[in-house]
Amino acid sequence: MATTLADLIFIPAPVIGHIKSTIEIAKLLVNRDQRISITVLIINSPSGSRPASAMATYIQSLANNSMDRIRFTQLPQDQILPNRDPKAPMTFVNDFINSHCKYVRNVVADMMSQPGSGRLAGFVIDMLCTGMIDVANEFNVPTYVYFTSNAAYLGFQFYIQMICDDHNQDVIELSNSDGELQVPSFVNPVPVKVFPSGFDTKEGLDYVLLTSRKMREAKAIMVNTFLELETHAIGSLSSESNVPVVYPVGPIINLDGGAGENSENDVVSWLDDQPPSSVVFLCFGSLGNFEEVQVKEIAHALERTGHRFLWSLRRPPSPEQTSRAPGDYEDPGAVLPEGFLQRTAGIGKVIGWAPQVAVLAHEAIGGFVSHCGWNSVLESLWFGVPLATWPIYAEQQMNAFEMVVELGLAVEIKLDYKKDLFNPDSDIVTGEEIEKGIRQLMDDKEVRAKMKEIGRKSRATVKEGGSSYASVGRIIEDFISNISSS
Ligand SMILES: *[C@@H]1O[C@H](CO)[C@@H](O)[C@H](O)[C@H]1NC(C)=O
Ligand SMILES: *[C@@H]1O[C@H](CO)[C@@H](O)[C@H](O)[C@H]1NC(C)=O
């Protein structure tokens, strides 16, 4: 019997962490089932924003090396970008993404008209691309969301929208208070200070409401998490009647990590010379960077703890650059305290961009000071490396809260630090706070033991017999069901 090929259209948001995660689930799905083929439609960063060179190269390499049953198509972009008001960043994001709807429509219609094309089984969209649901509806196919963050945060978004729409609660007023909110996807009350930016403004909140309402229209939501990690949050989502079926399919991470570059070899060979579990790794994600005063506080803290360290130190983007992507210093010594590099030469290494997966996989690493981007959290879990939290932007404050307070898998440096489009001028985290957090990170035996245990579970859940493995099987049946019966 001839097998029907099920074509899926994937639309990730133009954010490097989201694209990478989306590619990984695409690979997983085609490897798991011969019937599936995937076309990934790439929305490029707004032109003129000088996307991080890493992102441009990455997209290029994807387009160059298409994989079996995964194709990449870069979408065109309008000549004239939507209006960009610095006070309304989310309106721009939404208008910019939606300006691609017409291109998506053309590409998909064209694809379907090719001889030998499979049957369109559905759209799989990013949480930032919910406007594409309307395009999927035009083709009369279901939309699935691939949620690149965690289930607790997904539940938070739905809950906020529900209390606004159904109970008329004033979330802006709440978000400007220093109170807390009991949210079903969390066991503990969630302090307002860990709400992501934007919930305290009409523009930001309107965007959350819009995306949450749209996400409820999806047929199902795949979440990059696993049942053993977020048992409570997943359970609470499943018990809600107006929420689509949630499939925990993670952890989905790219274990190939870096590209085996020279810088990676250099870092790994340095780690080879360090004792097991002795090194603190500091890395703040693709957008993470600090001003010089903050860099000095970190340096002082590291010196005082005396721990071995590997520090990915990035230079803030220059003011004339419209993109927020940091770069590497020619000479990091220029921003570090006088003599720091010489004094710590025997125990520490300061680098630029870090091959994070290769580093976390190394047995010399004993702890990870992280911005708590969800991909980074999952990578740390996978390798059983305890975390110290220093969230920066997006929903990272909530990720940090979940890891420290809900799950006991991390120690706190900060839960509520914020530096993003809404808060360009952040406070300084003092050397004392950093020092205390790092000491606790390296000494806390309980967190270390729990992290090892959850790491083991994270690797088991994606194998045959594991719960995420089973979830992936169910979502594939869901995809196929839409085209098999007609
Ligand atoms: C992709 O292909 C183009 C054209 O062949 C080439 O110039 C470019 O270097 C390639 N980029 C990557 C990242 O492989
Ligand atoms: C496929 O999905 C569309 C849109 O959600 C729906 O209208 C249609 O009934 C589904 N078909 C089958 C066979 O399930």
Radius of gyration: 22 Å
Task: Report the β-strand fraction as a percent range.
Answer: 5-15%
- How many structural domains in the coordinates? 2
The biggest beta sheet is recorded as: 7 strands, parallel
CATH architecture verdict of the largest domain: 3-Layer(aba) Sandwich
Mean pLDDT: 91
Read across the widest sheet, the strand sequence of neighbours is: 3-2-1-4-5-8-9
Q: Segments where pLDDT lies below 50 for 5+ residues?
A: none
Label this structure with key terms.
Rossmann fold; 18 helices; alpha/beta
Walk me through this protein's architecture.
The chain has 486 residues and is α/β, with parallel strands linked by helices. The protein folds into two domains: 6-250 and 462-484, Glycogen Phosphorylase B (Rossmann fold, 3-Layer(aba) Sandwich), CATH 3.40.50.2000; 261-458, Rossmann fold, CATH 3.40.50. Helices cover 42% and strands 14% of the residues. A seven-stranded parallel β-sheet has the order 3-2-1-4-5-8-9, with helices on both faces. A six-stranded parallel β-sheet has the order 12-11-10-13-14-15, sandwiched between helices. Helix 6 crosses helix 8 and helix 11 crosses helix 16. The structure holds 2-acetamido-2-deoxy-beta-D-glucopyranose (2 copies). One 2-acetamido-2-deoxy-beta-D-glucopyranose binds next to helix 18.
Walk me through the topology.
Elements: E1 6-11, H1 16-32, E2 36-42, H2 53-64, E3 70-74, H3 89-98, H4 101-113, E4 119-126, H5 133-138, E5 143-147, H6 151-165, H7 171-175, E6 180-181, E7 190-191, H8 202-215, E8 220-223, H9 231-238, E9 245-248, H10 262-272, E10 279-283, H11 292-305, E11 308-312, H12 340-343, E12 348-351, H13 356-360, E13 365-370, H14 374-382, E14 387-389, H15 396-406, E15 410-412, H16 431-443, H17 445-461, H18 467-484
Helix pairs in contact: 6-8, 6-9, 11-16
The structure holds 2-acetamido-2-deoxy-beta-D-glucopyranose (2 copies).
